[in-house]
Amino acid sequence: MAQGSIKRQNRNIVSHIILIIYSLIVIFPLWVMIINSFKDRLSIYQNPFMLPKKWNISNYGDVLRDGDFLVYFRNSFVVVILSLAILLIVGALASYALANWRGKWSRIIYFFCIAGMMLPIKIASIRLLELVRILGLLNTIWSLVPIYVAMGIPIAIFILTEFIRQVPWELTEAGIIDGASRFQVFSRIISPLLRPALATVAIYNLVPFWNDLWFPLIFISDDQAKTVLLGVTRLFGQYQTDWSKVLAVLTLSAIPVIALYLAMSKQFIQGLTAGAVKG
């Protein structure tokens, strides 16, 4: 008995050491980015890994005052929130239909949808550019929303469909017996149970949407429609780059992502406990 507890304790120690090392690896780039955003250009090259001798907050003031970065932040925020909202609604409804529609065509449509997980959407960039131009969305932030929704649909359907299939059929049957329609069953019974899976889908797609540079670079050239990362490219010069301002912008751009991530993580935990099915 004592040997078993010692083995478990040793495993816990090893796992904690591995997690600490992994945490340090993840935190180190953030540490370098944040501390160097408070330095001048020369100090970054002299000592990039230590705290600044003199904290220089003018980098943040210069970025917010001289550029259009508040507009870029607004554009990125609107695009990400709208894309996630549409993705969760469409993904949940499609997954509910596929989970309850049992048949050959249901399986074909399901595998067709999740096949998008294996095919990167960037390979169709030229065709997507043509579609965006035909729809009149070129040089607008609205051109990014359908692209991001299409990017997230495969993983959303994969996660949500499997989650809905695990919900006991007795719950749906009880709602139908009580006179509820299919949509009422979905909105009142299935949706509360879907919160953990919806939070997972949102968290999975949040960072790729926010950090995407490829499609804004292709679709947007108007300064007033640029996203944060596309706006950062304005700070890169041909012969020199003001890294202190670049890192200041990247630090500011990380704050909304971290805030949204923490908010969705909290919802994930609450949904996991509140949405549990009791036998």
Automatic annotation (TrEMBL):
UniProt key word rRNA-binding: no
Gene3D superfamilies per record: MetI-like
Gene Ontology cellular-component annotations: plasma membrane
Bilayer-crossing regions: 12-34, 77-99, 108-129, 141-164, 243-263
Domain of life (superkingdom): Bacteria
Domain ABC transmembrane type-1: 73-264
One Pfam family matching this protein: BPD_transp_1
Keywords from the UniProt entry: Cell membrane, Membrane, Transmembrane, Transmembrane helix, Transport
PROSITE patterns, per the entry: ABC_TM1
CDD domains membership: TM_PBP2
BP-aspect Gene Ontology terms: transmembrane transport
Membrane topology classification: Multi-pass membrane protein
Entry keyword Lipid biosynthesis: no
Localization in the cell: Cell membrane
Annotated family: Belongs to the binding-protein-dependent transport system permease family.
Protein name: sn-glycerol-3-phosphate transport system permease protein UgpE
Organism: Leadbettera azotonutricia (strain ATCC BAA-888 / DSM 13862 / ZAS-9) (Treponema azotonutricium)
